[in-house]
Amino acid sequence: MKIRTVQAFALAYPEPHYKGIERYITLARVEADDGTVGWGECISQFREAALATKLIIEQGLAPLLIGEDARDVERAWHKMLAHVWWYGPEGIAAFGVSAIDMALWDLKGKALGLPVCQLLGGKLHDKVVAMASFIFDMEDLDWTLNEFRWMVEQGYHYVKAGWGMHPDAVFGQDAARDIEYVRRIREVIGDDRELIVDTPGARNLWDVPTAIQRFRQLEPYRLRWIEQPLLPRDLEGHARLRAAVATPIGTGEDEWDVESYGRLIRSGGVDVVQIDPGRSHGITGSREVIRLLEVENLQFSLHTWSSALNTAASVHLLAISDHGVSMDLKPHESPMQHELVSDPWVQEGGYLAVRDAPGLGVHVREEIVRKYSFE
Question: In this structure, are residues 241 and 229 in contact, taking their beta carbons and an 8 Å threshold?
Answer without folding.
Answer: yes
